[in-house]
Design the sequence.
């Protein structure tokens, strides 16, 4: 399986980055995950970090080298993340569970399958058009569905951050799972937080992806989104892949075939200055909690 994958995350104008992104892969399967900690709840960065950590850990445990069932993996990973967040809340006696959005995608055998909770999005582009994007679980999306708001106004509406679905919290997340889709050479799967999509129109994304190699295209879109949002820019995060080989004269990216059989990479910490200062407890305590959660998940044989 040939593809190019790239991830990036920026603090924007916020004091801390509550976004987390990551990807993991084997010789025959690729996982991408993005989580945006909800700023209206304390310790959103804990919820997003746990989500990326749990989902990637479960992928590494199950992909041998293929996942037996992509849909089951996506549901299990998100539900396990929800349980881990609530367990962390109890262990550290937090006043309420931290919460996060998430979008998770798996690619194998030329097929892609994804699931999401909240308003972090996945866009599926072909070489020439937008094929689909995820449906936000938000108040403004409901306004669009009811014909009260145009889609291009969603990023500007004062209620755009009001979500009715999250990972972590007292209610189980309502996971929206897409049916697997066939990928063709040149297709791009573009996972991003609302700090990105709220500032960019599809009519800008597609020409940028067509004109440049993936890394340069992502960087350019992040530059534009951050500039437009100004000094109060939200956190901005992307993890994206282009299926097949990139054909650009100045392409300097590393193809997945050159990365080895298995690998794992995330942006979990140090995404900006002092990103993890406000975690409940020290880095050591968080790592110990993660180890305990993963051990418990292993015993449950998820």
Sequence:
């Amino acid at each position: 399986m040939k593809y190019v994958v790239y991830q990036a995350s920026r603090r924007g104008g916020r004091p801390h980055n509550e976004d987390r992104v990551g990807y993991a892969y084997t010789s025959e399967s690729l996982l991408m995950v993005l989580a945006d900690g909800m700023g209206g709840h304390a310790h959103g960065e804990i919820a997003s970090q746990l989500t990326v950590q749990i989902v990637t850990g479960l992928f590494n445990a199950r992909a041998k080298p293929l996942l037996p069932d992509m849909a089951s993996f996506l549901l299990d990973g998100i539900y396990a993340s929800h349980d881990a967040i609530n367990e962390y809340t109890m262990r550290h006696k937090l006043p309420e569970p931290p919460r996060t959005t998430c979008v998770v995608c798996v690619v194998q055998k030329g097929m892609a399958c994804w699931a999401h909770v909240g308003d972090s999005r996945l866009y599926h582009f072909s070489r020439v058009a937008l094929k689909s994007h995820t449906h936000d679980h938000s108040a403004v999306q409901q306004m669009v569905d009811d014909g009260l708001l145009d889609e291009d106004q969603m990023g500007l509406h004062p209620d755009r951050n009001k979500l009715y679905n999250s990972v972590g919290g007292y209610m189980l997340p309502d996971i929206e799972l897409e049916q697997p889709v066939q990928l063709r050479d040149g297709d791009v799967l573009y996972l991003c937080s609302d700090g990105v999509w709220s500032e960019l129109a599809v009519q800008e994304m597609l020409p940028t992806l067509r004109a440049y190699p993936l890394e340069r295209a992502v960087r350019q879109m992040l530059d534009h989104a951050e500039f437009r949002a100004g000094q109060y820019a939200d956190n901005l995060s992307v993890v994206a892949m282009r299926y097949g080989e990139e054909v650009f004269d100045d392409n300097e990216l590393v193809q997945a075939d050159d990365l080895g059989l298995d690998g794992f990479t995330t942006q979990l910490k140090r995404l900006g200055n002092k990103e993890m200062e406000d975690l409940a407890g020290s880095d050591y305590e968080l790592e110990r909690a993660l180890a305990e959660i993963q051990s418990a998940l292993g015993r449950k044989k998820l």
